[in-house]
Design a protein that fits this description.
The complex is a heterodimer of chains A (375) and B (85). Helix content of chain A is 40%, strand content 14%. Chain A contains eleven helices and twelve strands. Chain A has helices at residues 14-26, 36-56, 69-83, 99-108, 125-130, 154-164, 232-246, 249-270, 297-306, 326-331, 349-369, and strands spanning 2-3, 63-66, 90-94, 111-115, 136-140, 168-171, 187-191, 202-206, 274-277, 287-292, 309-310, 338-342. The longest helix of chain A is centred in the C-terminal third of the chain and has 22 residues, at 249-270. The radius of gyration of chain B is 11 Å and the shape is globular. Chain B contains two helices and four strands. By secondary structure, chain B is of the alpha+beta class. Classes of the chains: A alpha/beta (375), B alpha+beta (85). The interface between A and B is medium-sized, with 24 and 17 residues.
């Protein structure tokens, strides 16, 4: 099987597996206890926090571990709303944020301003900062989009947010592991399984100056920001994976980016009526999304799986709600027949050649079955 | 606000999921003369996105939504397309 869904989860890095096994032996005890086994667990947790903080560009005491990236996003939004209640309850989001951010804002903010994106999925920085008000508790802008790969202008909106004293939450789940965190964040979320760590590790970083209060019952763990007994083996594994991966990621990202360029150019050349979506230049290195006219997205994913290629789709027929992806909707692009290809580290030219060799025939066959050939 | 013009033909795609409403639109746009309007009646949410996107890809004019009741339907939404070529 050729796995091309790294944006959902990157396969476990070998260093993560080693670190996890070691920490299961040495880091199982309660890190808040004062006896030897507890102190050893604390050392493992502190070391992991130190490594991840360095990689993200934060101070170790600004970092808390959560059970997932989604939970980190929820806590970022809810905790800032709680901490800044006196300022107001208005939240600014881009239309293409992850659903965890949009749902948290929708359900807990007093008012939400949704800033639209252009056809490429990019927010206009001027439009984003124009939405900030005196009663804005929080502004949310992802580092890069999870469905189409478009990079957002975080560094461009950050100075204005700072000037107005509005904290800027950056969901960096898709970019940490590929590139440094964008400058100017006040809160940042990331997710370990996107960079080769195990599932179940979310990272929430909160700058010291940000007024943030836990929306959950008081708990002393993780500086009061994330309740419950720390999963030290998983956290240690995530830290090991990120440290090992970032060593040499520049050339690897460039290599995969060239493959994505090849997919972006080849698919429309080989398959009629395909729309490649997302920004061709300002994008994640490893991710490309395209929509095939007259094709059912679910059938496309199923057929590619049968031929040995694992990809994801944002088409409505592949979601439980039967709604098209809110990202494709906000961009105003074709939503059916949608395929997202995201290359894990180590993807070979042979993998890409194999994928490109099956797509044209799969699409042709599905169009024939639907009676849509030659339309 | 002007009332949208009445379509010369209506494709009934109620109960069908995308891409079927778009396929049916593509099959029937040739049935009407250039300059005339075809309506697609659909209750699939993706049609609101995919019919305008099809018009852009196929260089046809997406006019907007009409009234499903005006073409005798008590459900779905009516999407209006003017044949440009």
């Amino acid at each position: 099987m050729t796995y091309l869904d790294a944006a959902s989860a990157e396969p476990l890095h070998p260093a993560a597996e080693q670190a996890m096994v070691a920490a299961l032996k040495d880091g199982w005890a309660d890190p808040s206890r004062l006896y030897g086994a507890g102190r050893r667990a604390r050392l493992a947790l502190d070391a992991a926090r130190q490594h991840l903080a360095e990689a993200i560009g934060a101070r170790p005491d600004e970092l808390a571990f959560t059970g997932s990236g989604t939970l980190a996003c929820h806590l970022a939004v809810l905790g800032t709303l709680a901490g800044r209640r006196r300022v107001g309850t208005h939240v600014v989001v881009s239309a293409v944020e992850h659903s965890s951010v949009l749902n948290a804002a929708k359900e807990y903010a007093g008012e939400v301003t949704t800033v639209p994106v252009d056809r490429l999925g990019r927010v206009d920085p001027g439009e984003f900062t124009a939405a900030l008000r005196a009663d804005t508790a929080l502004a949310c802008l992802q580092s890069a989009n999870h469905e189409v790969g478009t990079v957002q202008p975080v560094a461009e909106v950050a100075p204005r947010c700072a000037e107005l004293g509005v904290p800027l939450f950056v969901d960096a789940a898709q970019s940490i592991g590929w590139a440094a965190a964008p400058k100017g964040w006040s809160l940042l979320a990331a997710s370990g399984h996107k960079w080769g760590g195990p599932p179940g590790v979310g990272v929430l970083a909160i700058r010291r100056r940000v007024r943030w209060r836990s929306p959950l019952p008081e708990d002393e763990r993780e500086g009061g920001r994330s309740p419950g007994f720390e999963n030290i083996p998983a956290v240690a594994a995530a830290a090991a994976a990120l440290t090992m991966r970032l060593d040499g990621i520049g050339p690897e990202a460039a290599r995969l980016s060239a493959m994505v360029d090849r997919i972006r150019a080849t698919v429309p050349a080989l398959v009629p009526d395909v729309e490649v979506v997302g920004d061709p230049a300002h994008r994640l290195p490893h991710l490309v999304t395209f929509s095939c006219l007259y094709v059912d997205g679910e059938a496309l994913v199923t057929e590619l799986d049968r031929l040995g290629f694992a990809v994801n789709s944002g088409s409505s027929c592949t979601s439980s709600t039967l709604r098209p992806s809110h990202v494709l909707e906000a961009m105003g692009v074709l939503s059916h027949g949608n395929v997202r290809v995201s290359l894990p580290v180590g993807t070979t030219d042979t993998d890409v050649d194999g994928f490109l060799s099956v797509v044209p025939e799969v699409v042709r066959r599905l169009r024939a079955v639907a009676g849509a050939e030659g339309l | 606000m002007t009332t949208p013009p009445a379509p010369a033909a209506v494709v009934d795609s109620l109960g069908k999921l995308c891409p079927i409403p778009v396929i049916e639109l593509a099959k029937h746009i040739g049935d009407i003369p250039v300059g005339a309007i075809i309506g697609v009646l659909s209750d699939d949410e993706a049609a609101a996105l995919d019919i305008p996107a099809w018009c852009r890809l196929r260089e046809q004019d997406y006019i907007g939504e009409g009234s499903a009741a005006d073409v005798g339907s008590d459900r779905g939404r009516l999407y209006l397309v003017r044949r440009r070529r």
